[in-house]
Here is the input.
Amino acid sequence: MTREPLKIGVLGYRFMGEAHANALARLPMFFPDAPAVERHTLVGRDEDALAAAAERFGFSHTATDWEAAIDEVDAFYNLGPNHVHAEPSIAALEAGVPVLCEKPLAPTLEEAAAMRDAAAVTGVTAGTAFNYRFVPAIRYARGLIEDGELGDIRQVRGRYLQDWLVDPEAPWAWRMDAEMAGSGALGDLGAHTIDLASFLVGEEVGGIDRVTGQLTTFVDERPVYDDGEVIEYRDVTVDDAYGAQVAYESGATGTFEATRIAEGHKNDHTIAVHGSKGSVKFSLERLNELEVLQEGNRGYETVLVTEETDPYVDRWWPPGHVIGWEHTFVHENYEFLSAVAEGRSFEPSFADGYEVQRVLAAIQRADERGEWVAVE
Here is the structure.
């Protein structure tokens, strides 16, 4: 029996909207076993910009009211700013509509808890969009760790460096407002690192037990422009950079940092895991590679994770032909929509997103208190 295409509704048509729309368009070409989808409704506030985006992204309908859109679709992608994650996502779940929500799950721990609880109560498929879990090299690294190739995990190191706010005259945006974003580099970038560490070593070392935190804002206000002219300056109420030490339940340790003011770093996300028998290192800037040190070797070996036996790689090009950042969204959409079609759970779930939010909140508390704090 042929299934009707899943009607997809998407809230947000800028950076993430474009990334997910591209993924939806690529799915039938490279993942023919994926559920058929219809790019149905694109949701936004600016009718003219929305109409132009819908035409470019291949959506047949637009809406300025997310409530109306939920009634028309089979799956809802919440890709809007952090402060609009909770209400539409919870409403969709209560209406029986599966949700994929961008990270961080919400600006506050309380809202993230409400989203987690709504997913649990309704039993509807709900996912947090941590796309870096779907990099083939990351999946390969997880396999090595699960197979015991690194021995007992002792240390995890993660950093995420960007430079788009180096210039103090860079324009103000919602990501710089605590009420809308929750935090700055911590939630925007650190959420990715914390989730990735959990994905790689969580089964081996347990959860994060306690943390330190240092949040720093280097530029206290930024300009708002209109036609190239500064019309006002608005306060920056989030961090430009954060650093944290973490202690895992097993006794393993970790260090995490992120910044949006690291000159010369466009999107430098790296993570390293060190065990009693070996280590792995990954860099998003070389996402087809994994640095692997195994017991008995004197140095790291660069493994090109592009063999047809590697995760997802057989769907793309002949061995050795690399993939890019945008392909992570294709993999993520494939897994999420397959879960929706089969009526099963998806990982990372809203519960996973909530666990990341617990760590973010603890790092903020540690910064305020100037001491180690428990992750509550």
About this structure: The two ends are 48 Å apart (CA to CA). The mean pLDDT is 97. The longest strand covers residues 153-161. DSSP finds ten helices and 18 strands in the chain.
